[in-house]
Specification:
Strand order of the largest sheet: 4-3-2-1-7-6-5
Number of strands: 7
Structural class: alpha+beta
Organism: Menidia menidia
Radius of gyration: 40 Å
Family: Belongs to the SMEK family.
GO biological process, one term: DNA damage response
Shape: extended
GO molecular function, one term: protein phosphatase activator activity
Function: Regulatory subunit of serine/threonine-protein phosphatase 4.
């Protein structure tokens, strides 16, 4: 019973055509003597009571839906459903049902009326035979018709037979005639019955019925019937909206009457599906699948008919790019092209390729270049959507067009620069358009979708073009907002710090974060081009100015940019960082953050932890030489002690290497004499070795005494109340003591929390440091959280 594959919920359909939950249990299929056949048994998982006992009848129509539902009818108006927890359990029971009925389990319906004659159906299912005979289409019989239509929805066989009856007798148009009579008489009861009838007919899911109902002379009456929902106090006014509010605009006159009729029909049917009909329940999702297909194929037909009319599309693009076209007309043209592209998503891949190639040949990209630079916000938004369709379809096509543009003196006319400027100038406070455009730019400059097989030079040529003509436009806001501000009164004399111009503007901060995200992507994917640009523009220094921003998300973006650069472990970048002293703003941000235990704190520590773990020697030496005095008081993680340890190890290694080869001429002569002296060879060799060991022991002993003395002093200080750590003296840069302006702050006293070391992250390289800590028997302090 614990097998979840057989765990099911049992549902029955009530008089209101709603599914009632009868309980949860486990289903099995066994032979029941009393019923004389294989039956479905469901026992409740709570007490083992029998929730369902249903014989699998050879003539009952079972239907499998959505891989986890089995639905069937046992008698008139008594419908059952099993909802399985797992698909595997549903498949097992379905196979058992099909085995009993001798049907193929690959089918979703066990009884198909198309495969058998109508007479056989009457013989096999006598209880449903009367459903074929529709009552006379009269006002007095509307309630009977409504009950009949709603009662067949759960049975595929009865739905099929009712649909055939409705088609053969021209019943739909007679019903719609009754609707007009009821509306004239204001017969609300009859109108409510007609709502149920029309809704039920739609749920029969038959394309042949849709063709009748959605024809020009019937569709508005169908919409009228659906206005009179019994659940509403007052009927909706859908027909008024469709005929008066919704306006059909022909940007270019459509001469093909069939095309115009198809466009009207598609809009109205889409309105019925999206606005009028309620959201189908879990058991009704498949009832409108044919309606969805009806709309889908209509859209395909519309796109194909428009695409074949070359004169129409040529005229559209001619007016779109004509300077004499009025702004209102151009807005309608752009919206038409946008909707046209949206419809194209229904096409098969091969047809969609042909569609976009047609647009490219007609000049869609030059037209976008014009309209994206216009002042009208609606036009720009629609043009952005069209551009996104094109980039999604073929980034290479867009790149090829951009590189073939004539190189004019003004780079602003280039399509990519127009896109960048629209991103920068987005007036939306949330920068929704800018985010969309940034994603499109990233797709265009992503080397992963630059196909080497079609054009081996595409990556080199396009990236060279982008960095030459477009990169300065992208970074302009960043450089402008991190310019030197020499008139700032708060700036101390001699400081080299750069202040942002608009640090408090949230929208500007969001924009700079987007630009930094794109630049970080470039660092990861463009090796040579972005490296050259960063070096030439001293870009990292300007980015790190944003570490001073009051917007933490922007400071984190700047830090992430530096982290990606260091993550490459490129010595060119490392030398650039060391030469520019670019760790200074990061360490200042760490110290300014104080005792706050937040994301910025963790991100900065992770940066230094990465340097330590990867043993980037040049950066370790630079950090320890210039900033260790300011960082040694941070003890709640072992990162900075670890950096110092790495530094000392490398220093010892280098000194030993020098000592190994440092010999004067006299020692060489003595060695030569000793070498020739066979009698004293062993004794002298042992003496030299012993002397080296004593020298090493003395130096190591002094080092450990100093280290233990420092540790004992710290332990004594910690035995009483925790004393505040005095401010560390400023770090001195070798040969240039004034070049570093690292802030040194005294961290407030914190209590000793535990005698054992609890680091934020456990790294394998910390083992040596852990051993030293155990020898010192000293507990590091834990920086308190803000809430403490």
């Amino acid at each position: 019973m614990s097998d979840t594959r057989r765990r099911v919920k049992v549902y029955t359909l009530n008089e209101d055509r709603q599914w009632d939950d009868r309980g949860t249990g486990h289903v099995s299929s066994t032979f029941v003597e009393r019923l004389k056949g294989i039956s479905l048994l469901v026992r409740a998982e709570s007490d083992g009571s029998l929730l369902l006992e249903s014989k699998i009848s050879p003539n009952t129509a079972y239907q499998k839906q959505q891989d986890t539902l089995i639905v069937w009818s046992e008698a008139d108006n008594y419908d059952l459903a099993l909802s399985f927890q797992e698909k595997a359990g549903c498949d097992e029971i379905w196979e058992k049902i099909c085995q009993v009925q001798g049907k193929d389990p690959a089918l979703d319906i066990t009884q198909d009326p198309i495969d058998e004659s109508e007479e056989d159906h009457f013989d096999e299912i006598p209880e449903t035979g009367h459903l074929v005979e529709l009552p006379p289409c009269e006002l007095s019989r509307l309630e009977e018709i409504a009950d009949l239509v709603t009662s067949v929805l759960s049975s595929p066989i009865r739905r099929e037979k009712l649909a055939l009856a409705l088609m053969s007798e021209g019943y739909i148009k007679k019903l719609l005639g009754l609707f007009r009579v009821c509306e004239d008489l204001d017969n609300r009861e009859g109108l409510h019955h007609l709502y149920e009838i029309v809704r039920g007919v739609l749920f029969l899911n038959k394309a042949a019925l849709f063709e009748v109902m959605f024809s020009d002379d019937c569709i508005m009456d169908v919409v009228g019937c659906l206005e009179y929902d019994p659940a509403l106090v007052q009927p909706k006014r859908h027909r008024e909206f469709l005929t008066k509010t919704a306006k059909f605009k022909e940007v270019i006159p459509i001469t093909d009457s069939e095309l115009r009729q198809k466009i009207h029909q598609t809009y109205r049917v889409q309105y019925i599906q999206d606005i009028i009909l309620p959201t189908p329940s879990v058991f009704e999702e498949n009832f409108l699948s044919t309606l969805t297909s009806f709309i889908f194929f209509n859209k395909v037909e519309i796109v194909s008919m428009l695409q074949e009319d070359e004169k129409f599309l040529t005229e559209v693009f001619a007016q779109l790019t004509d300077e004499a076209t009025e702004d209102s007309k151009r807005r309608e043209l752009v919206n038409f092209v946008k909707e046209f592209c949206a419809f194209s998503q229904t096409l098969q891949p091969q047809n969609r390729d042909a569609f976009f190639k047609t647009l490219a040949n007609l000049g869609i990209l030059p037209a976008l270049e014009i309209v994206m630079g216009m002042d009208d916000l609606q036009v720009r938004a629609a043009a952005t959507d069209i551009f996104s369709y094109l980039v999604e379809f073929s980034p290479s096509m867009v790149r090829e067009f951009v590189m073939q543009e004539p190189q004019q003196t003004d780079d602003d006319v280039l399509l990519i620069n127009v896109v960048i400027k629209q991103m920068i100038c987005d007036s939306d406070p949330e920068l929704g358009g800018a985010v969309q455009l940034m994603g499109l730019l990233r797709t265009l400059i992503d080397p992963e979708n630059m196909l080497a097989s079609t054009n081996k030079t595409e990556k080199t040529e396009f990236l060279g073009f982008f960095y030459k003509y477009c990169m300065h436009v992208l970074t302009a806001p960043l450089l402008a907002n991190t310019a030197h501000d020499k008139n700032c009164k708060d700036q101390p004399e001699g400081s080299t710090k750069v202040n942002p111009v608009c640090p408090d503007n949230f929208q500007t901060a969001q924009l700079l974060a987007l630009i930094l995200e794109l630049l970080t992507f470039c660092v990861e994917h463009h090796t040579y081009h972005i490296k050259t640009y960063i070096m030439n523009k001293d870009l990292l220094r300007r980015v790190l100015v944003l570490m001073n921003s009051k917007h933490t998300f922007l400071a984190l973006c700047a830090l992430r940019f530096m982290r990606r650069i260091i993550g490459l472990k490129d010595e060119y970048y490392n030398r650039y960082i060391i030469k520019g002293n670019l760790f200074e703003p990061v360490i200042n941000a760490l110290l300014d953050n104080g005792t706050r235990y937040n994301l910025l704190n963790s991100a900065i520590i992770e940066l230094f932890e990465f340097i330590k773990v990867e043993d980037i020697k040049s950066l370790i030496a630079h950090i320890v030489d210039n900033f260790y005095k300011a960082l040694e008081s941070i003890e709640y993680v072992q990162t900075f002690k670890g950096l110092k340890g790495r530094y000392e190890q490398e220093k010892d290694r280098q000194s030993q290497k020098l000592n190994r080869y440092r010999r004067d001429a006299r020692s060489v002569d003595e060695d030569e004499e000793l070498w020739f002296n066979d009698d004293d060879e062993d004794e002298d060799g042992e003496a030299v070795e012993k002397r080296m060991e004593e020298d090493f022991s003395d130096s190591y002993g002094k080092y450990m005494e100093v280290k233990k003395g420092a540790a004992n002093g710290a332990s004594v200080a910690n035995n009483g109340k925790a004393a505040p750590i005095p401010a560390a003296p400023p770090a001195a840069t070798p040969n240039n003591s004034s070049s570093s302006s690292v802030k040194t702050v005294a961290l407030p006293a914190t209590p000793v929390v535990k005698p054992a070391l609890v680091g934020l992250v456990d790294y394998p390289d910390d083992e040596d440091e852990d051993d030293e800590d155990e020898e010192e028997e000293q507990s590091p302090r834990k920086r308190p959280r803000l809430s403490s």
